[in-house]
Amino acid sequence: MIAVEKVSLAFGGVWALRDVSVRLDEGEVLGVVGPNGAGKSSLLNVISGFYKPKAGRVVYMGRDITHLPPHKRAKLGIGRTFQKTSEVFKHMTVLENVMLGAIAAQKESFLDFWGSMVWIKWAKKEVEVLRWAEEVIDFFELYAYRHKPVGSLPYGLQKKVDVARAFAGKPKVLLMDEPMSGLTREEREDVARYIIEMNHVFKLPIVLVEHDLGAVVDLARRVVVMSYGAVVAEGKPEAVLRDPAVQEVYMGKALARV
Amino acid sequence: MRRPWEGLKGDTFPKLLIERAEGKPGATALREKTLGVWRPHTWSDYLREVRSFAYGLLALGLKPGEHVAAVGFNRPFILFAQQAALALHGRSVGVYPDLLPEERAYWLDYTDVSIVVAEDQEQVDKILAVKSELPKLRAVVYWDERMMWRYRAKDVALLSWDDVVKAGAEIQSTDPDLFKKLAETTSPDDVCLILSTSGTTGRPKGVMLTYGNMLSMAKNLWEVDPVREDDEYISYLPFGWIGEQMMSLAVHMLVGFRINFVEEPETLWRDFREIAPHFMFGPARVYENFYSKIYELIEDAYGLDKAVFKWAVDVAMKKAELEMAKRPIPLTLKLQWWLAYLLAYRSVLDKLGLKRIRYAWVGGSFLGPDYLKFFRGMGVNLKRIWGMTEVSGIATVQRDGEVRPDAVGRPIANTEIKIAEDGEILVRTPAMMVGYYKRDDATAEAIRDGWLHTGDVGMFTEDGQLVYLGRMEDMQRLSDGTVFSALFIENMLKFSPYVKEALVYGEGRPHVVAILNINFETVSKWAEQRGIAYTSYQDLSQKPEIYKLLRDVVARVNESLPERIRIRRFTILFKEFHPDDGEMTRTRKLRRVFIHQRYGQLIEAMYTDAEEVEVAAPVKYEDGTVRSVTMSVKIVKL
Fold first, then answer.
1. How far is Cα of residue B546 from the mean position of the Cα atoms in its chain?
2. Which of B31, B297, B535, B583 sits in a 20 to 30 Å window from B178, CA-based?
3. Which of A134, A193, A197 sits opposite B36 (nearest CB)?
4. What is the pTM (predicted TM-score) of this model?
């Protein structure tokens, strides 16, 4: 599905990614874990196109997309959610946010779509968009908040709206940047449920960047562990967790030996 | 007036369904909000769904006389499943969707349910959790398939609704007339529903009701308060309750209005407003919630709006009081009322979806007189009924123009009521149950000489209305012989927006005491506005300021009580009385005996000079874990 091949990324003199290769297979949930500053978010940003790598390339469904801008990658079906909720439109309602995501799934560009609303045949399109948006709202159980401005909702719900917005764009791949950070246990379980559902029912491959090791072990079929901008381990979650190199990353040398 | 069922020959639900679907196939029977839009089901859709599921039940091997239970939040599938089982000469068992595991296991086992139709994953989980205690359960069918792909079940068939329909399609194609043949041989004397008694004491019993019972009750009620074919109704109260079965099956089949199913419990307020039903029926709690909702909205309003509303409520209460006392209303009050209507009631009723209500019946539990005044004063035709599961729901209703706060109305058509020597209310009606399921002893005790002995205490007013005084076991006697109704005092306390529940006690004691639950929504707002910091319900409930707040509430109630039965001591509990902790029934009636046992020490302390006492209470969570909480509470003297 996606292959990141020998990618390096630097900010000034700091290497954010060094010679990183990662691949995502059809239909799988790939967990990416590692301590703060390990390069997890940078990796996502390279895939979605916010950062341009210094070396290496990103291949998406057999096509080199290293030089495509982010919005073109989104059009190709790479969706993503964000660590902070600053990416949802807080003054707009939940439904409007999800509809915006759904419009992105349309073949026409944003401007064409709104510009052509004057014609009746395009009004039909709006009905389609609304219908799909409502299905997404149902899927994420957001019905009670449909007409509430996103900014007025609790943080956990705002994050959920962000996921719903990304999902409404009918992505072929979903990149999730710490969807559980800052949530309560109950909310985390809720998010886990949606990840399983999206992956299973819609066969959606997901790259899950997450701090919460336990969650990743439960959800991902394969895990990549990063540290200081490099991949230190890769494989089945249980096996990876037993890897001394990984224990060292998480607990430091001294503890790992105990 | 022309009766809406004139010309219909059907005398059972399946027969009526077929007749209606053939007579007006394109008319809307049900409406369901899904994906944000109200979607209609016509009568022919209704019949088609019932028929295809009935064939599916045949494929599952459902035999005549077997029991099916449909459980979940109110959605059309519950009606489809019930009607399908009934058409095959099966019976439908009512289940409250929030029963605790052991209650659910007991109820489904006792009623011999062989197939459960569950709404979704949550309800399936709840059934599978107690499967080992249900040897007679053969199949669990689920309506909503979400997350169900992960499930494998042992010892029980676990199928989706669509699977069942598919399995039935073959029978349907080889014998397409079978459904109709079976449905048309149902008889009015067949038992169709088994519903639980409210069970304030001990295990619930299964009340067996026939089509004849249900339909006669619906007809007799219609003679008093006719509902119309083009009315809107909202179904959201549990199908385990007779009131919902009566409206959504019996009255619906007879009259043919439109039943609306809201999207989710969380969207109820919004959906209620969108439909604005023409009639509704609910226990006191429903109206208390409307009342709290109004005050929640008003609390957030600006000062001027608040002041206007306060004045408007005064006007409403005054007008309702005069009306109910059948006294003339002065012109100035009439004018004020119209002004208040334009400024306040109109928009408040519109916001709540109560603007089109022609009848709002309240029964099942006691609604404080002030609520009645409040809603009637604003123009909602709220009236009391009295009845019970054993008489298919309603036995008395207040006629328009006869509503008064202390009575529950006169018998509906073809219904006789008399009071026994000891004050017990006796009823004779064609709607009276056949008996309790597998409890002939209890049946023989309840039905004697053709009269149902209700266990309720009552008397008649001079204008022939029944006055309900309480359950026989609720009447209490102070040590000096003064008789009082704990329920009555509790309801007066509960009219305060700050009191959610109250338990009043005094049996064999020198004076009356009360245990109160605060209403967290209103009290927390009150506290916030005064800058009182709190962390949780427990913490808030024990603040000295809150004790002071409730002391004023109790003092005001005392003013309107006779000297002898005034409340002399009260305390605030640090937790709510809750059905999950066994302190209330599912219809939210207090289980007194149980509470007296659990809080015996607390009650004892209220008859001493103690000012503080330690109370231990177990709290049960929805997953069944129990945690004991110990806290000391204050005792306030009055």
1. 30
2. B31
3. A134
4. 0.80
